[in-house]
Amino acid sequence: MITFESVTKRYPGGTVAVDQLDLEAPTGKTTVLVGPSGCGKTTSLRMINRMIEPTSGRVLIDGADTSAVSPARLRRGIGYVIQHSGLLPHRTVVDNIATVPLLLGVDRRTARARSLELLERVGLPQEMAKRYPAQLSGGQQQRVGVARALAADPPVMLMDEPFSAVDPVVREQLQNEFLRLQSDLGKTIVFVTHDIDEAVKLGDQIAVMRVGGTLAQVAGPSELLARPVDAFVAGFVGRDRGYRALGFTTVPSSVPVEREETVRLGESLTTARDRLAHGWVLVVDAEDRPQGWLSEHSVRSARDDLVTPDALNLGGTLATVRGSLRELLDAALSSPSGRGVVTDGQGHLLGTISPAAAVRLIEEHGSTAADAAGRGETA
Amino acid sequence: MNAAAGGGPPGVVEYVTSHHAEILSWLWSHTWLSVVPVLIGLVVSLPLGYLAARHRWVYPPLVTVGGLLYTIPSLALFVVMPSILGTRILDPVNVVVALSVYTVALLARVVADALGAVPEDVAQAATAMGYTSPQRLLKVDLPLAVPVITAGLRVAVVANVSLVAIAGTIGVPELGQLFTNGFQLSSDGPYYPPIVVGVVLCVALALVLDLVVVVVDRALTPWLRKGART
Fold this sequence. Notes:
The structure holds two protein chains of two kinds. By secondary structure, chain A is α/β, with parallel strands linked by helices. Chain A folds into two domains: 2-248, Rossmann fold (3-Layer(aba) Sandwich), CATH 3.40.50; 262-364, CBS-domain (Roll). Chain A is 35% helix and 23% strand. In chain A, strand 9 and strand 10 form a beta hairpin. Chain A is globular, with a radius of gyration of 25 Å. Chain B is mainly α. Chain B has one domain: MetI-like fold (Orthogonal Bundle). Chain B starts with 11 loop residues before the first helix and ends in a 10-residue tail after the last helix. The chains are: A alpha/beta, B mainly alpha. At the A-B interface, helix 2, strand 6 and helix 4 of A face helix 5 and helix 6 of B.
């Protein structure tokens, strides 16, 4: 557990970056510090590993005052990941990852073996071990940065906007892998971001900070979306928070789907025409996995005799029974046919659901924002 | 010196054949007089540059003093050295010390700039990993400063080859002697062979020393040539 006890950082000019911060980051959980620029979130983070020294107050890790150990020793026990990876350009990937173990006096061979393990753990092939950072893409560099932070197996990790400098697709991959890694490792993480969506996705606990370095609210993600304490937090968590709160409720296995007539890829267009319902027919592959929708118009105007992938409308998203109500509603709303496609966990078609039925389900399962808040983080 | 045997005065080939022992010894002393001050200068510049990179107030005076030192004519410095150092006028130590001063004037600033140019996120990350200040200097900042420092070294070493030649005019035995000789032998009209030999050897020496610095630089910075993503 990381504890801030009335921590204040005041700069010589009189600017107060962090003002009387009291906060606990529980062991094994991810605590996200989020807020607009100038709210002191990065300053707070850096006071944990003494990159910045507090003007007053104490920071404790598992009850021990961080100012009692030398900064270098303290830092070797804390993983640190930053926005632009900060890898050492003159060291190969494997040596970059081995940085902290080598500083701790682990012998080179053991440190390198551990590096290779970690490389795999963060999803990079071992061939990358001998490369230099400049030979990697931004996303790969961030993965190496995460591997480096994990190398000495520190109980505490600090992450300062680690995913904000990569493109949205890579960012989502990295976020998902972060969740996977964290569910395996259970580190005590403090994560700084200015992106409330990222905070809600990754955080077990979210601390919203306001300019001037004070805490506005500390809460679990669903409670934060459902019950922002004041206008500032409400404004910061954004407009579609009711919709986003649906992300915390799982689609029940009893989801009332309608049977949907389908046609397989490679079947004749005549069959497809016979199975059209309200102008659309769902196309699946040989294993009953949804591939896309075929419209009446494309059935009639197609030059081929068979159902081919290039005639499909791919506009709709898919929902799964293990996914969230948010995905279910999105599938219903985004489907060109107005019928949201629902699959089982393996991607096989279960049936479809209309937006109206999805909304009814949301009502029945008490997934309005207020109820989600009532159930707290377990929802 | 050697009167022409028959026909005109001796050409370049004859000059080299008859003076090769002297020329070789001058080439050797020219080489070490050029190299040793660069090494001494580098050793002195590293801590000075580090101080200037670390404490901002040191940087402006360092640059100013360095610039002023470089404006002192080298000949004057060679002549003044004995009274400062208590050495004899022809002692090569005078040349070594004077050129070391020039090298420091040039390199201290380069070292400061090179250490100051280490990317902020790299420096921050290294500190956050738990490097102590001396460790960070030796294992992160200095290795990353190598390309800039070697660029400065190349200038310093080539400049020194040319500055050493000037010491020939006060009689220090090195390749500069060839120019003095050429001048002395030109009393009955221009006599070029020693001058040509001197220029060619100085240029060749500068090229070789420059190449040595480049090779050292390449050996120390393998990461720079693997920059392209594959």
